Every structure is written in C-alpha cells, then in structure tokens.
Amino acid sequence: MLKLGFGLIRTGAVTLALTLAVAGSAAAQRPGAPLPMAAAASWGTVVVGGDGSVTAWPDEADGQAVRVDLPRKALSAAVHQYTAFIVLDDGTVMGWGKNNYQSLGRDGGNANTPTPIPGLRDIVQVVATYGHALALRRDGVVFAWGEDVDGLRGDARVGHPPVTLVPGLPAIVQVATAARHSLALGQDGRVYAWGANGQGELGAGAAGAPAAPAAVPGLDKVVAIAAGLKTSLALKQDGSVWAWGSNQSAMLGNGSRGGSASDGSAVSPIQVPGVSGARQIAAGEGFALARLADGSVRAWGFDGYGEIGVGTAGGYHMSPTRVPSLAKVVNIGAGGYRVFATTADGRLWHWGTPIPVAPGHRPNVKAPAVLTP
C-alpha cells in the first residue's frame, strides 16, 4: 500500500491507453478503439484505461505510477484538491482521499481506498476542482457536493446535506466547474451558469454577487462547455469559441489582459478571435485550449508552467497560439496546470507541470512529451 496525496491505493501493473478523452469534454473516438479518460489537477493525475483499469500518478507519492483497485470497470475520472473520483460502468461514483468539506459526500473521516459517494446512481459524468464536485445523472439531473460557498450548490442557502441536487436546471447533457462557479449545457443548446460572479463569469451582463442557475443570455446552439479560473467558455455548432468572465490571465484570447470589468473582463460572451472550425475546448488554471477540425491545437492564457506548449514557461499568451509540435490530435484536456492530448497514432502527450511533481523539483514540461509509466 502506498500513501498518496489523496489516500492509499495498491501498487500494480501500469496500463496506458491509446486514446484520451478528458472528463467534461466533447471527445472523439477512433473506430474500433476504446475510449479511456484522464483527469488531473496540479497535485495528481489519473488515467482510466480502455480496459476499465485506473492508473494514478500522485504528486505526493514517490513518483511511481500506481494501480487503483476497483470493484468494476471504470469509465471516467475527476480529481480535485482533496479527492479522486471514478465513475464505474454501473453508474456509481467512487471516491477516495481526504474528506475536507465533505468531499466524499458524507460526514466522517478520510477514505484510504475507493468508496461509493452516497446517493449517486446512474451517473454519466463527474467533474471536480478545488474542493467541490458535480455529477450528471443519465436523465439530465445534476448533483453537487463538497465546498458549500458562493452559491456552488445552486442556491443561497448554507448548511446543505453532503450531496444535493442543483435546482433550477432543465435536462442537462454536460457539466463543467471551476474554482467558484459552475456551468451546465442543456439539451436545448443553451448554457446555464451559477455560483460566484465577481468577474462576470456567469455571463449575465454584469458582475455581482453569487447567483442561482440561469441561462447565459444571447448564447445558443452550444455543443460543449469549459470552465476556468473565473472564466467560462462555450463551443458553438459553427466551430466558434466564446468566452466571458475574467481576463486577468488572458483567457478571453482577445489580445489583451485585464482583471476587472473596467479593464478588459467580459460580463457577456464574446467570440475568441483567431479560432474557427473548433471541435473541442478545454480549460485549466488560467489558460484555455481548442482542438480544430484539422487536428491542430490552439492555446492561450497563462503560461507559468509551460501550459501553452510552445517551449516557454512564464508570462501570458494573450491570443490563441498554435501548439507547434502536434498534429492529427483527436482529443485534448486540461486540469490544474497540466494539458493532455492524444494524436491519431494513439500516443498520449502531456505538458505543463510534470507528472508527477515528486520526487524533488522536477522541471516543467514546456512542450508536448509522450506520457509513459
């Protein structure tokens, strides 16, 4: 048994997948190939293999990949500051790690091995960041648990039960969450946002106090969503990408950078210039990415750890920049300060903070590198 940043799991054989999809993204699949998934934060990485196995690179461990024992095959994963989550093929959700803010969906202590999150059944997607998480049920209902601040549960009340239903939403097909706000994509192609709104991240036309779920005005025909640090993104049917909220990290991609509504942030969606024909979007801590129809990738925003993938670390890229060393990309994703991409030849790439950070002070990965056990 090996102690990780989010608990104890057993060591074992490492199996890497040939394709990658990131929880919460619109993913592509090679014909006949399984569709594994990856999740990451700045403290650890989890990969779900095509065979349903789970491999983790915990940042607080000794640098070795470890195998997670589960009762059934895994379909997808999510990770936040305290806990790792796995969606199993029967729709249950397993979690292990610290129980700060009831991040295991219950009272009590930590979990050293994966245990079910109470009350969650028939789940098709889980997303997580900082200390809270969302789960999407097959019938379009959304649940929340963990931190209970800034309206993250979808209302202004405090003292919720550990796991609660997010009120005021229509049937939902995708969820996304960031530090203090969340998004949901409705079957109607509209985006619903709730939580903190200090930088206009809810897209309601003004910054202000936390708010309950409401449709983002003037935005429709959306096919995918992503949430970053005080910033929201949407991908429309026509391949255009739209962003709103804080521009402190240049996540609006409009060639400028500012930290408030008065100096560059957007309280309503604006189109990200220089991106067309997008097929997938992703967001991390202060940066965003888009995969285009031609298999190339654009990245913009914070580049403190090499997240833009152009060989640098530090500063900001205020406009979408092509990741130069990648082509024929079929999936992208981001978590914390890490980025993942899978190319058509089946190789899994990563850049940003190293996987894992421990032992010692390993260098940042400033350009795409193949992830190997």
What is this structure, in a nutshell?
This protein is mostly beta strands.
What's the topology here?
Blueprint: E1 2-4, E2 7-9, E3 21-22, E4 37-41, E5 44-48, E6 54-58, E7 66-68, E8 74-79, E9 83-88, E10 93-97, E11 111-116, E12 123-129, E13 132-137, E14 142-146, E15 163-165, E16 172-177, E17 181-186, E18 191-197, E19 208-215, E20 222-228, E21 231-236, E22 241-245, E23 266-271, E24 278-283, E25 287-292, E26 297-302, E27 316-322, E28 329-335, E29 338-343, E30 348-352, E31 365-370
Parallel strand pairs: 3-4
Antiparallel strand pairs: 1-2, 4-5, 5-6, 6-7, 8-9, 9-10, 10-11, 12-13, 13-14, 14-15, 16-17, 17-18, 18-19, 20-21, 21-22, 22-23, 24-25, 25-26, 26-27, 28-29, 29-30, 30-31
Describe the structure.
The structure is a single chain. With 373 residues, the chain is mostly beta strands. It has a single domain, classed as Methylamine Dehydrogenase, Chain H. It is 0% helix and 46% strand. It has no helices and 31 strands. The protein has a 5-stranded mixed β-sheet with strand order 3-4-5-6-7, with no helix packed on it. Strands 8-9-10-11 form a 4-stranded antiparallel β-sheet, with no helix packed on it.
Low-confidence stretches: 1-33
For the record, give the distance between the C-alpha atoms at the N and C termini, rounded to a whole number: 18 Å
Based on DSSP secondary structure assignment, what is the total number of beta strands? Answer: 31
CATH superfamily: Regulator of chromosome condensation 1/beta-lactamase-inhibitor protein II
Average of per-residue pLDDT values: 87
CA radius of gyration: 19 Å
